[in-house]
Design brief:
Blueprint lengths: L1 E5 L6 H10 L3 E6 L2 H8 L11 H12 L4 E4 L5 H11 L3 E4 L6 H4 L3 H25 L4 E7 L9 E2 L3 E6 L2 E6 L7 H20 L2 E7 L1 E3 L24 H11 L3 E2 L7 E6 H13 L7 E6 L2 E4 H14 L6 E2 L14 E2 L3 H4 L8 H14 L1 H5 L46
Parallel strand pairs: 1-2, 1-4, 2-3, 4-5, 5-9, 6-16, 9-13, 10-12, 11-15
Antiparallel strand pairs: 7-8, 12-14
Helix pairs in contact: 1-9, 4-6, 6-7, 8-10, 8-12, 10-12
Length: 416
Amino acid sequence: MKVIVTGIDGYSGWPLALHLLARGHEVVGVDNFVTRRRVKEVGSWSATPIPSFPARQKAVKEILGKEIGFYRGSVCDYQFVHNLLEQEKPDSIVHLAEQRSAPYSMIDVHHAVTTQVENLTGTLNLLYAIRDTCPRAHLVKMGTMGEYGTPNTDIPEGMFEMEYHGRKDYLPFPRQAGSWYHWSKVFDSGDVMYASKIFGIAATDVMQGVIYGIRTQEISDRRLLTRFDFDETWGTALNRFIAQAVLGLPITAYGKGEQRRGFIALEDSMQSLRLAVENPAQPGEYRVFNQFDAAYSVNELAETTARVAKEFHLSPVIEHPPDPRVEAEQHYYNPIHEHLPKLGYHRTRDLEEVIREIFHDLIHYRRRLEARRYVVQPTVQWRSVDSRPAIDGRVPHAHPPASPVPGEPASEGPSA
Ligand code: USQ
């Protein structure tokens, strides 16, 4: 199949491209390298050094013997998206090119607006361009488990049968997102569902859990590594905990630490996305996959990280800073995930084994972590700027200049 991956330069986009190529699919990537710029904006960088995109393409050619097509541009530019789809006529489009950080969306009004305008614009552009240039293409849209929030009931896969005042219907399950970012995904879901109805587009909305991990089967060589973020804005919970343990910083399990979320290893997230691509929705069908392996509390992940850290002769400390987010710190959580197993999905990665793998790589790149250690601990507050406590006497988001790492460029450098 010919698959367009928007956001190919990102944490999931890059390993997805490698995963699909290794299984015989043709991959065309799209990116405007905004994540590289925005990670730099918050004073951070990827723990793994990321080559320029042409260098990535060269490495894929040399190591995997495969070509990756590439277009540099923004999905927010309709003419760009239209021309791309008209030119390539893909079988599938996996849309990952969105602002993906909840903390980034909560920095201030500008970050909130940017997140929602960009995420909704990109999705609408793709929906119209599919209608006008390749109406039979299947859209696999990256959503998030965070759309549902943490209701005191089981969470179905997108839709559920409900009864009210004696009448029944099959409707979208109520959404209760927990950041402007997560709300942008809720609004996206509504747009994809509606476009499937009025334009007849085949669509899979993937409610993705929190991804953890650094490697997949295809990442056999350091030149093929994906990015790995560990700062407070771009890093996700488990990945951050491991970086904190390597740096000797407290592992920050926010609040009571009993927040539960669905988690999935990078490798298995790629498997799930491939299964969605290889088993497309029907024209006009809007289907939802809850994509995660197991639900863990933040405390369980912090404790597992601390246990494994000791194998690497580290001395981890778990702390419970006040939760900077507005979220339930103790709650019921039972999402259903049956659609992907029906397509043949099975978990391949064990949690502790992946944690060990991440420790191994991060210890190798320890100097890169050290050079950005001041952006790891939390500063962005969900409620208001005025209530933000200074962390270690530091004003939130006023970062000192980055320390140089011998032999490394000062930033991730140009992307192309
Ligand atoms: N958390 C901590 N300590 C930390 C970081 C996070 O306790 O140092 C807690 C958060 O309070 C939250 C949970 O861990 O309760 C998950 O936070 P996260 O930053 O790992 O994940 P989140 O902000 O929800 O977003 C991430 C990705 C996003 C994706 C989402 C899937 O950034 O792109 O959509 O995971 S989900 O969480 O299922 O919505």
